[in-house]
């Protein structure tokens, strides 16, 4: 398991819950995420970034610091995910990647789909909500005391997602089809005391659910190949000036 501290919004509200890093988790701070890791009293295993968003002192140069050029194709969060993937991590809990700049939020959500496409699973945490992606697989949620009005939404990241099942939800879908430009899956809810699942036979779903819900058990329908690729500091022709 990997915990990533990104540089975005951490929602320090009165009901904010401190980040708890599970024992043995691999921790990566992405650029300004180092400020938040320090504030949480967490020492990252690796710090990666160009440090354009870091407000505190830059980390000492060492094997645990990967300094990236400011002009590059891969955003710092993708670089952090690649570093953790190369260390064997396949489950990622990412903080500070929701809220603030909408383009960063959209980028982070797409990166969760990228992780899912290679057989991993990533969870973006922020403002009482968790966002994840599942490809050709299923998320099983244990029964819990679900509060009314706490929404669960499902969208197709793929052009088409087939065999979409949502048993146990307030509005159930069985063997449905969602497309990338439709939004039928918005504003669903867990039912109190009822286990629920969200699955897709073929395609990639983006799923949002309340942070207080139990973390789902992940089932994949087949093996996945490939990886996130090597750490890339290459500048494509599109970025050359």
TrEMBL record:
GO biological process: thiamine diphosphate biosynthetic process; thiamine metabolic process
Keywords: ATP-binding, Kinase, Nucleotide-binding, Transferase
Residues of the Thiamin pyrophosphokinase catalytic domain: 26-113
Gene3D superfamilies: Thiamin pyrophosphokinase, catalytic domain (3.40.50.10240)
EC number(s) reported in the record: 2.7.6.2
Highest taxon above the source species: Bacteria
Molecular function GO labels: ATP binding; kinase activity; thiamine binding; thiamine diphosphokinase activity
EC class (word): transferase
Protein name: Thiamine diphosphokinase
Keyword ATP-binding applies: yes
Pfam entry (one): TPK_catalytic
């Amino acid at each position: 398991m990997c915990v990533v501290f990104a540089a975005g919004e951490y929602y320090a509200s009165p009901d904010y819950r401190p980040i708890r890093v599970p024992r043995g988790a691999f921790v990566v701070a992405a650029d300004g995420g180092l400020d938040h890791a320090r504030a949480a009293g967490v020492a990252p295993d690796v710090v990666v970034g160009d440090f354009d968003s870091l407000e505190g002192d830059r980390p000492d140069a060492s094997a645990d610091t990967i300094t990236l050029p400011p002009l590059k194709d891969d955003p710092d969060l993708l670089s952090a995910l690649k570093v953790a993937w190369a260390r064997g991590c396949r489950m990622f809990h990412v903080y500070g990647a929701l809220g603030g700049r909408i383009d960063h939020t959209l980028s982070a959500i797409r990166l969760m789909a990228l992780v899912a496409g290679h057989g991993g699973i990533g969870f973006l945490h922020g403002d009482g909500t968790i966002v994840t992606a599942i490809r050709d697989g299923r998320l099983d949620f244990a029964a819990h005391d679900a509060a009314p009005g706490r929404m669960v939404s499902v969208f197709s990241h793929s052009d088409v997602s087939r065999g979409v099942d949502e048993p146990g939800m307030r509005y159930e879908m069985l063997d449905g089809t969602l497309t990338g430009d439709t939004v039928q899956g918005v504003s669903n809810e867990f039912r109190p005391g009822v286990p629920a699942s969200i699955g897709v036979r073929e395609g990639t779903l983006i799923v949002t659910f309340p942070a207080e819900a139990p973390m789902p058990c992940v089932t994949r329908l087949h093996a996945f190949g490939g990886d996130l690729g090597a750490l890339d500091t290459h500048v494509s022709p599109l970025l050359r000036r």
